[in-house]
Specification:
about 425 residues, alpha+beta, conserved putative lor/sdh protein from methanococcus maripaludis s2 fold, Elongation Factor Tu (Ef-tu), domain 3, OB fold (Dihydrolipoamide Acetyltransferase, E2P), 4 domains, six-stranded antiparallel beta barrel, four-stranded antiparallel beta sheet, 4 helices
Length: about 425
């Protein structure tokens, strides 16, 4: 094959060697490989640790807390929590004594009433008429008594005249006997008239009582918390058909808001933790930031076997205007403080020790951890404490239960991070990842 001379491919005379070009560095790929290998070797431990950490189980932790109290005082730690409703210790559904149509109401919700004050009235025109008729009957009976007394006096004088005439021989024995009989009859008429007056007056008292029964009076000092009727409605002591909200003829609910308490229920298994008079804290669902002081007033003497609960009442000692009946509330029962005698004795002993040159010691601190952090292994109570990213097993000595927490007497110090619900198969020194809430 002949390459034309004019073709640049066949023109070898144009080929030249560039003497000024830099020499090729054939060692660079080797250096790059070495550098890469060094970087991989240096990063391997960190990468291995990262992979191991990512494979470590994720755990939830809680910190051990400490409660320190002053000398001679109670720890006041919670022992039980229950929920219920605010009620008035003295509350009454006020109803009517007799049926009829309401003619007057003097209250609304929130009205303060005094004991004995009329708060409602039933129409009583018919009773007024009966009362007036009874009073007229009394007047009539009194007039009849006056007539009977006057007739009796005349009959007595006539007997005296007949006796005087009998002595003179002017009248007969028959006439004297007739006069005495007439006087005896007049005495009976006086007695009958007096009985008629008493009967008429009794009918007056009956009418007056019936009239009083048309009035509804407040049974005690309090506040109307619920209005159940309106003027013009017909009410009855036994309720009216179709008025289910007013069973028993109640027209209002009155409560003494000066004595409010929480009505709650406690499981039979927890009743043993409670004692009369023990302190408590009350929180309203509407005001979670406000804490009220309470005291256990009563544990009911019977239980509900269907629900396995016992009703408990807790008095609210410092209730204010925010506390209203029927509000939802939670009660945290707390340990009762030591008796006054023990407190005084402890204070005296502390003072004696202070006089001897030593400071009066404070109460022993109480360390608390969640119950879920404790597990049982080979008959020992253990917890897992997270240090850095490793879990360490510790044997602990436990004290009393505190609702969902438990006292730790040894093995854990305040601030330790303990694992809650430790995963199965966890070993001492194993890596863990702390769950971030």
């Amino acid at each position: 094959m002949t390459i034309p001379s004019e073709s640049p491919i066949g023109d070898l005379s144009r080929l030249r060697i560039d003497r000024d070009a830099a020499p090729r560095r054939r060692w660079l790929p080797g250096v790059a490989v070495l550098v890469l290998a060094g970087a991989v070797a240096a990063a391997y431990p960190s990468a291995r640790a990262y992979v191991a950490e990512r494979r470590a189980p994720e755990v939830e932790i809680a910190h051990a807390t400490q409660v320190v109290t002053a000398p001679g005082t109670s720890t006041a730690l919670p022992v039980l929590v229950a929920s219920g409703y605010v009620v008035a210790r003295h509350s009454s559904d006020v109803g009517v004594k007799t049926g009829g149509r309401l003619a007057m109401l003097t209250f609304e919700e929130g009205t303060r009433v005094r004991k004995g004050v009329v708060i409602a009235e039933i129409e009583h025109a018919d009773i007024d008429a009966q009362l007036e008729a009874s009073r007229r009957a009394v007047a009539e009976a009194e007039a009849g008594l006056a007539q009977a007394i006057a007739a009796h006096d005349e009959d007595v004088r006539n007997v005296d005249r007949q006796r005087a005439l009998m002595k003179d021989g002017i009248t007969t024995t028959q006439t004297l006997t007739g006069a005495e009989a007439t006087a005896a009859v007049s005495i009976a008429r006086v007695t009958s008239a007096e009985a008629a007056i008493a009967s008429a007056r009794a009918r007056v008292r009956v009418a007056e009582e019936a009239l009083e029964n048309t009035n509804v009076r407040a049974p005690f000092d309090g506040v109307v918390i619920r209005k159940r009727a309106e003027v013009g409605e017909t009410v009855s002591p036994f309720g009216v058909a179709g008025q289910a909200t007013r069973e028993g003829g109640a027209i209002a609910t009155i409560a003494d808001l000066n004595e409010l308490e929480v009505q709650t229920e406690v499981s039979e298994n927890s009743v043993a933790k409670l004692a009369g008079g023990m302190p408590a804290e009350v929180k309203l669902q509407a005001y979670q930031d406000q804490i009220y002081k309470g005291r256990l007033r009563q544990i009911f003497p019977s239980a509900d076997r269907a629900k396995a609960i016992v009703e408990v009442r807790v008095s609210i000692l410092d209730a204010d205007a925010h506390v209203k009946p029927e509000m939802t509330a939670s009660v945290t029962f707390q340990e009762a403080g030591p008796p006054a005698g023990r407190q005084a004795g402890a204070a005296s002993a502390d003072a004696t020790r202070g006089t001897d040159g030593g400071a009066a010691p404070a109460s022993d601190p109480v360390v608390l951890i969640p119950k879920r952090a404790v597990s049982d292994r080979n008959g020992q109570s253990i917890v897992w404490v997270v240090t850095g990213s490793a879990a360490t097993r510790r044997v602990v000595a436990l004290g009393r239960d505190r609702i969902d927490q438990v006292e730790v007497r040894s093995g854990v110090v305040p601030g330790d991070a303990v694992i809650i619900n430790a995963p199965a198969g966890l070993t001492d020194g194993a890596l863990v990842r702390v769950k971030i809430n």
